[in-house]
Amino acid sequence: MFRTALRNVLAHKARLLMTVLAVTLGVAFVSGTLVFTDTMSKALSGQSAKSYDGIAVSVTSWGPSRTEDGVKEGEPGISQQTLEKVRAVKGVDTVSGRVSGFAGVGDENGKLIGSGWANKGSNFVPVKDGKDPRYTFTDGTGPAKDDQIALDKESAAKGGYKTGDKVRVATNGPVKEFTLTGVFTTEDGAVNAGGSLVLFDTKVAQELYLQPGFYDELAVAAKAGTSADQLLTDIKPLLDTKHTKAQTGKALAAQQAKDIEKQMSSFSTMLLAFAGISLFVGVFLIYNTFTMLVAQRTKELALLRAVGAKRGQVMRSVLAEALVIGATSAAIGLAAGIGLAVGMRSLMDSLDAKIPDGALVIAPGTVVAALLIGVVVTTLAALLPAWRTGRIAPVAAMGSAHLPATAKSLVVRNVLGSLISLAGIGVVFLGVSMGGDGRMVIGAGAGLMLIGMIVLLPLLSRPVIGAVRPLLQKVFGVPGKLAAQNAVRNPRRTAVTAASLAIGLTLVTTLSVLGITMGTAVDRMSTDKLKADYKVSMAGGMGGLDKSVAETLAKAPGIKAVSPQADGYFKVGDSFRSASGVNPATIGELLNIEVTSGSLASLGKGEAAVAESTAKKQNLTVGSTLQVQFEDGQKGALRIGAVYKDLEGLLSPYVLDNKVLSAHTDQQNVREVYVNATAGDSKAGQQAVIDALGKNPAMTVATQQDMRNEMGGIINTMLNIMYGLLGMALIISVLGVVNTLAMSVFERTQEIGMLRAIGLDRARVKNMIRLESVVISLFGAVLGMGIGLFLAWAVGTTLTKSVPNYELILPYGRLGVFLLLAAVVGVLAAMWPARSAARLNMLTAIKTE
């Protein structure tokens, strides 16, 4: 029986090739993801370990903290005195005190080199022979004076800088000019991530990032023969353990390796989810393929039963075929996945998202996973068709029956599908009633709905396709009528074929509607709520601005109105409340704040404005008084002077004059600064702001259109990624349509011959097959899009409170494109089956049993 199974595999190579391809794609996606993430993890972990070479003990400061009363505890960092104590410990060879923060360098056009978040500044610490062990200089030396810096080799090359050049460096405040004294290479993670690294003299770095005489970190090297663990034991008693953490370099490298693995695991999980969708869709194709093959070989299998084969033997022979196909697909998929991982790595390198050098990692677990997935998925999908082979009676050898489904089985299926679908819809509505907490519940309901839809598809296919039959007949004549009839001739097969397309388009439609709606909401917020000509913020969202930015802009020529949007908080009872610090004199010119009671002028008197939703929750009105405790522990009374309609994303629930808020904090985070220029929203106005900032490459001056484009770009990029990942599932869906049509042509060989004999020419035969394919594709597409729209509405209802101006938008143009693409898929999938049908010999086809 096993030899028979192998012969059957070889006898149906063309048909099984599509199954192999479907499984191969899914396995390639899984194995490629695992190989890529394993390679990334090992490379990044190796890089992290290199950066701790020579470090026996690392001491890190968490900075000062505040008690419940707001009293500040602890020093800004690790003091010079602590460093000297550590240096005096027996067995310590050298101690390097480090500070770090954001620093950006512009190229010759003033554009920031690097990606913002990976642009870093630190201090040069010569420990022996004037050298810093973390950096290898390829030209020049490290900085030794206040006006000197060193720059990493790649950033220097990108900016066209050489030693001796003047380089403008930006932090979160005004731009400063330094002389470049050296260029170096390093294993620093920021540089290897595609960012830049600027080295300052220690005194300058401390003034920029911390406080003179303090460090963020101590890197301790041990003398020969001294163990890191012993050194750690001796150093710990010298530290303020509440605000610092000491650990060996080896332990720190291991911890970072774990963190990297965790981060890569999240990335891997997302990719594997889409691989799972592809494999799930592939199950329908495999199931259909084996169902067709069993039907095609009814007489052969019945003859085997007639000559003595038992039901179990026949069933196992079909499963053996699936096993062979699964193993073959898994092997090919694993090889393709390795190639995919290499391609992904090259793609990231080409996009300047640098990955450290390292060998490709093909873990044993990846190989096992690929083989298991290929074999298990294929075997499970073939299980039901294999079971049906055991039901073929020996007497079937006398005919060519294809074992149509019984009425009883379809009734059971329809009842079961209806119950599952109704349960799914009920769970979705339950999630909607839960608001923002119901998204996971909606996801569970969506899963039930899709399962119910798959079960119910045979029932749905007849009335839905029947409804379009008159139109097909009227437009395309006899081929149209025959195509509609053929599409519902075997409702099970049509359902399985349409299901794969329906699943893909359910996900695509849901994501598209939500993405476009979110983009429109953001656009409305920019248009309706933001009156400022420009928003100034750090490039790449890298932290907050220095408070001097707003002060500098307010004094600059060509600037009409300026207000910071500074973050802060205060405590009311046991609850912390977030607040925004603004300029009371200008904020009304920059934001469209709709006051429902009171006046914004009250901000200038030291009073507070509160958002309408918060006022209702806290039972606050104009004239109410809040007893508060500020960040520094000082207590006071805030009178509510205005209530305004919520501006989530632009203002916190409480708004104060920034002079009041900043007086109670040491280092305030200014998220952004809103600006109106005398020249308005124009090139001249934008240039006036840029000039006032000293052409700072680390800051962006965004117009309202820039803000819309930025958010729209993020949403479109995310959608395009999702479309790309779901494309695999849609490709497998196309293969499923091809398979179904091929089987349809095989089953109707005699019928097609008769149609040709009574006058249906080759062109109309091709047209009939194409239309059948388009009908099945559009049936799946319409069903998937309908469910997708319902799920988009459900998820959208959970976002209305957290996203201002949220209103569901139906992108009719994009939905029309999806339908058109489904039709194109139908036409393309029908090319080979239609050609095969048209080329059938008329007489041979008529004689076929």
UniProtKB/TrEMBL annotation:
Domain of life of the native organism: Bacteria
Chief subcellular location: membrane
One of the Pfam families matching this protein, by short name: FtsX
Domain ABC3 transporter permease C-terminal: 273-393, 725-841
Name recorded for this polypeptide: ABC transporter permease
MacB-like periplasmic core domain mapped to chain residues: 17-237, 494-684
InterPro entries: ABC3_permease_C (IPR003838), MacB_PCD (IPR025857), Macrolide_Exporter_MacB (IPR050250)
Keywords for the protein's UniProt record, in alphabetical order: Cell membrane, Membrane, Transmembrane, Transmembrane helix
Membrane-protein topology: Multi-pass membrane protein
Listed transmembrane segments: 270-295, 318-342, 362-384, 415-434, 440-460, 495-516, 721-746, 774-795, 815-834
Family in the record: Belongs to the ABC-4 integral membrane protein family.
Organism: Streptomyces polychromogenes
Compartments, as annotated in UniProt: Cell membrane
